[in-house]
Write a structure and sequence with these properties.
mainly beta, 4-stranded antiparallel sheet, 35 strands, 42% strand, palmitate, BamB, cell outer membrane, membrane, Quinoprotein_ADH-like_sf
């Protein structure tokens, strides 16, 4: 999936499709016309080496639609929570796929006229859940606290820009990130603002998207629009350290685009992260000291297993790196230009979705394709969500599928 690029100034959102180093829009039908590489055809004689069972499918609203955000469900206590940019939010039984409750923020009345207090909530950041608190951000600059048991509202807070990455709930704080480079700390009980971090400058050109925040050991970690890995104190938003993931070098503005748009992973005391036009790297979490790094350009998140780091580069080749030093373990280019999601590790397999609604399972040992399922004919943008032995996948139209390796 080609990353949408945001440009400041006129506050326009544009899709750059002239370069093969960027990805095509979902639903783009003429690759020749757009001057980009067509997706690699799927092998018609493919024979799976492992069995995958689709457990159920369901839908929540229109999903992310044409917003360019990467919506995926959240899981807690046997329940999935999902939302859509057309104002739907729902709780789903993770075992059966049955809807437990569903809420809509649609305006009432003819042709949209009606109660202005019920205007659509353009859900785009999240959801995230902890205990009985469900939190979600919106395209129109709100963060909502919702009762996870029944979907009833608890509080709302207003911010200065879109919230398109998932907020994080940590103790008595909710941390949310906005498209203008700010991070906010809110009281989880009532939504009151406790602090704001506004020291990042957003470049003129950057990817449309924010990688998920990571909160651990009283620290907030994230990758910013300038290609930096940043650590803040959780209690007050004070910066602790930052390190460079991408330097933004090149002759053109596009070449210099450097954005850390994926999640930050933590295993033990080691952080793993990557950036567009940058590196995949490991850092010591407490100090920020670099441990290793190597060139690798990606606009999606990574995932890790006991001995490897997995990533999808900006040409949709799936890579595995040795976790201890970053050496290549394998590369699979059978899905090149199929504009894959971030990888998710499910047991001995790496799971990715593609622009035509297929879900691919690759062996972690050598990257060989092991199985393939099709959720829908719509693009999958969001990283699959692994819970135990089940993986949940969501496409851009809000269709969610649950898959398990082996039989029922």
């Amino acid at each position: 999936m080609k990353p949408e690029v945001k440009k400041r100034g006129a506050m326009k959102r544009v899709w750059l499709v002239a370069l093969t180093s960027l990805v095509v829009l979902a639903g783009c039908h003429s690759f020749k016309k757009e001057n980009v590489q067509p997706p690699t055809p799927l092998a018609k004689d493919f024979k799976p080496t492992t069995q995958v069972t689709k457990l159920w499918t369901t839908s929540v609203g229109d999903g992310a639609g044409d917003s360019g955000v990467r919506l995926r469900p959240a899981f807690a206590d046997g329940v999935l929570y999902a939302c859509s940019t057309d104002g739907k939010i729902a709780a789903i039984d993770a075992t059966s796929g049955k809807t437990l409750w569903s809420k809509s923020s649609r305006t009432q009345g003819w042709f949209g006229w009606g109660d202005k207090k019920r205007a659509d909530a353009l859900y785009a950041g999240g959801p995230m859940v902890s205990g009985d608190l469900l939190v979600v951000g919106t395209l129109d600059g709100h963060v909502y606290g919702i009762n996870a048991k029944d979907g009833s509202p608890r509080w709302e807070s207003v911010v200065n820009s879109e919230v398109i990455s998932s907020p994080v709930i940590s103790g008595n704080l909710v941390i949310a990130r906005t498209q203008d480079g700010r991070l906010y700390g809110f009281d989880s009980a009532n939504g009151e603002r406790r602090w704001v971090y506004d020291q990042d400058s957003v470049p003129l050109l950057s990817l449309r998207g924010n990688g998920p925040l990571l909160v651990a050991n009283g620290v907030v970690f994230y990758g910013n629009d300038g290609g930096k890995l940043v650590a803040l104190r959780l209690d007050n938003g004070e910066k602790l350290w930052e390190q460079t993931l991408a330097s933004g070098e090149g002759r053109t503005e596009i070449d210099r685009l450097a954005d850390a748009d994926g999640s930050i992973l933590l295993q033990g005391t080691t952080l793993y992260s990557a950036a567009y036009h940058g590196n995949v790297a490991a850092f010591d979490g407490p100090s920020g000291r670099p441990l290793w790094g190597r060139p690798f350009s990606t606009f999606t998140s990574l995932d890790i297993s006991d001995n490897a780091v997995y990533g999808v580069n900006d040409e949709s080749q799936v890579w595995a790196f040795d976790k201890s030093g970053g050496a290549d373990m394998w590369k699979n280019d059978a899905l090149k230009y199929r504009w894959l999601t971030a990888p998710a590790v499910l047991g001995d397999y790496v799971v990715v979705g593609d622009l035509e609604g297929y879900v691919h399972f690759l062996q972690t040992g050598d990257g060989a394709l092991a199985a393939r399922e099709r959720l829908s004919k719509k693009a999958i943008r969001a990283q699959p969500l692994v819970v135990g032995d089940i993986v949940y996948v969501e496409d851009v139209k809000g269709r969610i599928g649950a898959y398990r390796l082996g039989g029922h």
